[in-house]
Predict the structure.
Amino acid sequence: MKKRILILCTGNSCRSQMAEGFLKSFDKELEVYSAGTKPADRVNPKAVQVMREIGIDISNGKPEDVVKYINDSFDFVITVCDNAKETCPVFIGKVGKQLHIGFEDPADATGSEEEILSVFRKVRDEIKEEFYKFYINELK
């Protein structure tokens, strides 16, 4: 049976979109969704750029409101930012496990374009590493 995973963040524009992209790249059989407690208007273009650099296209992602999924059942609901962890709603559907795998918000980075992209790449690589550990330990 396919595992269903929901990844939550505040804006659903960076970290949760990257995590969704990685999990889908690890295993095409997973049903992976991402949402936000206060969804942004679009996926952050720098997140799209740094994921494209490693061959993962998240450009078609669309930030969605977590309310859309509140009645659904998931094997895992994973928060990737502290704010989403604190404001994560109670799911009416069945949730196997709720986990928190937190990362700094690359959208808060300041400096030159290269310095900002460097933060996005660092967070991207941390997300890849932590979600691969999750995949191996929880889903394989």
